[in-house]
Amino acid sequence: xxxxxxxxxxxxxxxxxxxxxxxSERSGVVNIALEGLLLGGAFGATVGAIAGGPVVGVLAGAxxxxxxxxxxxxxxxxxxxDHVVVGLGxxxxxxxxxxxxxxxxxxxxxxxxxxxxxxxxxxxxxxxAMLSVIAVHFGLARTRFGLQIRAVGESPEAxxxxxxxxxxxxxxxxxxxxxxxxxxxxxxxxxxxxxxxEMSAGRGYIALAAVIVGRWRAVPTLLACLAFxxxxxxxxxxxxxxxxxxQFVQMLPYALTLxxxxxxxxxxxxxxxxxxxx
Amino acid sequence: MNxxxxxxxxxxxxTGIAAxxxxxxxxxxxxxxxxxRVWALLFAGTWGSSYGIGQVLFKATPLALAGLSxxxxxxxxxxxxxxxAQLVAGALGTTLAGIALPPGTPAPIAILVCTIAGMVAGxxxxxxxxxxxxxxxxxxxxxxxMMNFIVLAFVQWLVLPGRLxxxxxxxxxxxxxxxxxxxLSVVFPSLAGSxxxxxxxxxxxxxxxxxxxFARTRLGYELRVVGLSAGAAAAGGIDRGRTIVAAMAISxxxxxxxxxxxxxxxxxxxxxxFSSGVGFMGIAxxxxxxxxxxxxxxxxILFGTLSQGALSIHAVVPKELVxxxxxxxxxxxxxxxxxxxxxxxx
Lengths: 278, 346
Hints:
The complex is a heterodimer of chains A (278) and B (346). With 278 residues, chain A is mainly α. Helix content of chain A is 73%, strand content 0%. Chain A contains eleven helices and no strands. The longest helix of chain B has 30 residues, at 107-136. Chain B starts with a helix and ends in a 10-residue tail after the last helix. In chain B, 58% of the residues are buried. Chains A and B meet through helix 3, helix 4, helix 9 and helix 11 of A and helix 5, helix 6, helix 12 and helix 14 of B.
């Protein structure tokens, strides 16, 4: 596989999870649960695809993401708990539930049964991922819902006095977040043709890093995802020659994010009300 | 007032345990097991025998230290999501000191040196994101998450065969014999066979230390003021940046102790991946313990019980059930006691 196709393939889960992150964080909800949403989506998609084919799988993945993200919404919005802890809780829950499900359904601690069929030459999920960027970009910039998301993310007080229900908008944003990240997980599972325990393997955190590097905007976030996926692809291609130093390639996204939040390479400003309750 | 405090302190844990029981029952029932039998096995495998009790102590030790670490930062209004990296760095520091010491070093000195090395390594890993926050305004949640991955990757690189790793493995050489912490079974023979060691003393000492820090010292007072209100801290002449770095360094140093039980008390060497998420679980432990030292110890014992109990329930339900229960406890506790963390606009 060429470096370009390899990069695009690796970018799909990053892009979908990162777009999920953009929607959530622009509405003011810190989202470190992307990792768990990917994992839940991957498991849902595997169960669905084995039972009813790829389309059912993709829908089941999105549904699993929505379910986990809605729980995030109930605890962080309705019960007003800290977003970071809730995110961690969701990640732990997704990890536990999927491993429980693996043993219960497939009698294995590591892998599910195989998803029948072959991965196509052009991954339809790549198209879905690109569409998600367009949808998030224009959705946030041009639609009424997008305007509401930005309003509650920047100034919940002002939005509230303009008659917008902060929690309702954030809750809906979290449903969209769950669907997008769940699709990302579905892409991961369908590409691997099975579910493996902890198969999200930190991708949700890389997506979060991409959101920060992309300054919470859809198109720059896409570029960050592509850059991180390129780093992965290079690492895979050069496996032999960089043997023993791949850990440093793996550090790149995180080091870059760290440098950016410190303002060393330009300043990344988060939505003003990020993490604050409405 | 007093009654309100008691209600506040118990509503979180009570909700957490109730929610975990409910979800546990549902999942047990879903796989066709009798919930009552699951709980009975869970209890029998932990508090039902002295071996089980020893194992609960062994598992609760790192959890309690990670929980104490998180709670110190929390009291200063900081969220340390980086206990995992600090713990791993600390364990590696402890191990390297234990390998480097001359073989004849007397045990008390060897153990002390190894312990301090772990605290320094963990403390540096905590101080770094603290410094980035104080100096550049980088949010500590992002800083510690990114540090986790950077440190874990770096440690993985360090412990490759040919560097610190033994051939064909991801573990280091063993520490000198006198640096090893004796098992509890040396004094309590009934605990024979369990991995629990006198590393549990670290929890006691760290708990007392944290208590004294906040109750007795000026630094502890400054940490609390910064945690309560940045404005008040500035008006009171407290150097906020310095306090943030100190809070994160102390938090990291305590996390750096969390590997003691495994490295000096059990295995005698460092192995990549040994902590398996204890640092993250420390956040859950701190939440459940409401960031008070003794609450943290109690909740670590609960989480340790679940984690040890997993092994005994496996005959009737997948042992992964307990991971679900731990997550449920976290979500229920933060949902029921959301007053614990009040985020200030930075």
